[in-house]
Specification:
The protein has 17 helices and 14 strands. It has helices spanning 6-27, 37-58, 62-90, 99-118, 145-171, 176-197, 206-223, 236-240, 259-265, 269-272, 277-283, 288-292, 339-390, 394-418, 431-441, 461-479, 526-537; strands spanning 125-133, 136-143, 244-248, 254-257, 297-304, 307-317, 331-337, 427-430, 448-451, 456-459, 484-490, 493-498, 540-545, 551-556. A five-stranded antiparallel sheet has the order 4-3-7-6-5. Strands 9-11-12-14-13 form a five-stranded mixed sheet. A two-stranded antiparallel ribbon has the order 1-2. α13 runs antiparallel to α14 and α16 (461-479) runs antiparallel to α17. Keywords: Coiled coil, Kinase, Membrane, Phosphoprotein, Transferase, Transmembrane, Transmembrane helix, Two-component regulatory system.
């Protein structure tokens, strides 16, 4: 026999909100913030628990009522376990979700549920009769110890879930609304169950409490979108990082924010959550350009405490629609303070400008050396030749040697002035062509060069030519007029060797120092300039003994360049 009560309407009500909520959860299986299984099981279990209670209330026979109790017990167990799992997932306690640990924790509850359903030795229901209260026939049950033991274990799970939520809220205060709505939903059935167990109510309204709490859970899903994006399941790294972080859903509603973004925007984080992009743009108008730009990236500037600060604002879509283009799940916005980087770029630009000015002054100085000093020296040489025709004197020879010495000094000073110029123009350079050109520029007397490489490297053409000129001049100066110079290559770079007397091992490091020379006519700058040019290119310079027992200069770390049509100028006879 059946009966009707207004309580039946309350107990059936969860179906009205559970069905559309379940559909929303199922739709979010592809891009969930949390695992959708725990809340899905929780909602289904609450609905079935309420229906089991409604069926038990609708029948009037005692046997029928008692027959429906096992389903009521089972659904209650599913509710508390799924609630605990949902809390662990929500608050990032992944350790509790391991099968071994979760099984160990739930084992006592599952055993007590089995004993409760079986009513082992009447430990669950000791006696039961039907009574009429307020015109409704209900079961008046005398509960046994298993009933209270099972409830105690279930309370442990509920308390554990509440503890997870409350402690998580203290460290993630931006989501106070989410957490407290969950805790509030848990409080309703818990208070009603306590009232029944303590005898304050004659009817067990626990399932009705869950029926009332279910709309609160639905509110969380739709209001806070906790299943859609990632506003809670995030590590402390996001919260503590210096980059501002915002997440908007596909309706441009803010669903997540860290402290840095809230500080930058000057808006309380709780105020931002749940509001659309209009609030963001009204307080931070510059960010609109990043949203509207095709690249989703823009650099903006703001005045903060009298100082101009720069931020890179970058927006990225979270997932895509069915057509693969339109954002489907929302977007993430990052605000990165790049003031230090921009200031560093400014300093680099200023430094480059100063270097360019310095290079210009050095070039002017080089021009003076090469033209204004050499022109009078050329005139003096010409007059000296005329004087020799008229007067033959040993003093004329000394004057000629002095002029030659002055020309060498001018050449080395010119190279020394130009070595301070940074390598600014790298291009594919043929070693064969540069070597032949450098050999023609040096007074090599009767020396011979053998070029055994057709390698093309990435280098500054002018400075590489200067490097070979100095090496060739050094070989002729120390190896004698009949020295043979060899230019070759190996895997790591190239080398220049001669068959002269070589360089003693103890002096090989010193030869690159400024002013070091073993020749009475040398200036000591030639090899120092060689190393400076190599260093500017990023090459490493070493000096060893050649196979002919002469000197061998090796350059490693040399980058090859693709031959882009650089023509090798042919020199008829480089000897």
């Amino acid at each position: 026999m059946l009966q009707f009560s207004w309580l039946l309407l309350v107990l059936v009500f969860p179906l009205l909100v559970a069905v559309p909520t379940i559909l929303v959860i199922v739709r979010n299986f592809e891009n969930p913030r949390l695992s959708p299984i725990p809340p899905l099981v929780l909602i289904v279990a609450v609905s079935l628990w309420c229906l089991a209670d409604a069926a038990r209330l609708a029948v009037t026979g005692l046997d029928a009522k008692l027959a429906l109790y096992p389903g009521y017990y089972l659904m209650g167990t599913v509710v508390v376990v799924s609630l605990f799992v949902f809390a662990a997932d929500y608050t990032e306690r992944s350790a509790w979700l391991r099968p071994s640990q979760l099984g160990l924790v739930t084992a006592p509850l599952l055993v007590s549920t089995g004993l409760e359903v079986a009513n082992f030795r009447s430990w669950t229901i000791q006696s039961a009769t039907t009574v009429t209260r307020n015109g409704v026939v209900v079961a008046d049950v005398t509960w046994g110890p298993m009933f209270y033991l099972h409830h105690g274990l279930a309370y442990c799970f509920v308390a554990g879930a509440a503890f997870m939520f409350l402690t998580y809220e203290t460290t993630n205060r931006h989501y106070r609304g989410q957490v407290w709505s969950i805790v509030g939903a848990l409080t309703i059935p818990w208070l009603l169950n306590v009232a029944y167990l303590t005898g304050l109510t004659a009817f067990n309204y626990t399932s009705i409490g869950f029926a009332a709490a279910l709309p609160v859970g639905v509110l969380m899903i739709f209001r806070y979108r906790i299943l859609r994006l990632i506003p809670v399941a995030r590590s402390s790294v996001v919260e503590e990082m210096d980059t501002g972080y915002l997440v908007l859903d596909r309706g441009d509603v803010v669903v997540d924010v860290n402290d840095r973004a809230a500080e930058l925007l000057g808006i309380d984080p709780e105020r931002l959550l749940g509001y659309d992009r209009g609030v963001l743009e009204s307080t931070f108008p510059e960010v609109a350009a990043a949203f509207e730009g095709d690249s989703g990236f823009d650099t903006i500037s703001r005045q903060e405490d009298g100082e101009e600060r720069y931020y890179n604002v970058e927006t990225s879509a979270l997932g895509h629609g069915d057509d693969g283009t339109a954002p489907d799940t929302g977007s993430v916005v990052l605000f990165q303070d790049v003031t230090a980087q921009i200031e560093a770029q400014r300093q680099l630009r200023d430094q480059k400008e100063r270097l360019e000015e310095q290079n210009e002054r050095l070039e002017e100085f080089a021009s003076i050396l090469s033209h204004d000093l050499r022109n009078p020296l050329s005139v003096a040489d010409g007059r000296l030749e005329l004087a020799r025709d008229e007067h033959d004197s040993v003093h004329m020879e000394k004057i000629a040697e002095a002029h030659e010495r002055m020309d060498d000094l001018i050449s080395d000073a010119l190279a020394l002035a130009r070595q301070g110029q940074t390598v600014l123009s790298r291009e594919p350079v043929s070693l064969d062509r540069v070597c032949r050109s450098a050999w023609e520029n040096v007074d090599t007397r009767s020396a011979t060069v053998e070029i055994g490489t057709d390698r093309t490297v990435s280098a500054d053409d002018s400075q590489l030519t200067q490097l070979f000129e100095n090496l060739f001049r050094n070989a002729v100066e120390h190896g004698g007029p009949g020295v043979t110079v060899t230019v070759g290559e190996f895997d790591e770079g190239f080398f220049v060797a001669d068959d002269g007397p070589g360089i003693p091992e103890a002096k090989r490091d010193a030869v690159f120092e400024k002013g070091f020379t073993t020749s009475e006519s040398g200036t000591g700058f030639g090899l120092n300039i060689v190393r400076t040019i190599a260093d500017a290119h990023g090459w490493e310079t070493t000096v060893t003994e050649a196979e002919t027992e002469g000197a061998r200069f090796e350059f490693t770390g040399v980058a090859d360049a693709a031959d882009t049509g650089v023509e090798v100028d042919s020199v008829a006879d480089a000897t």
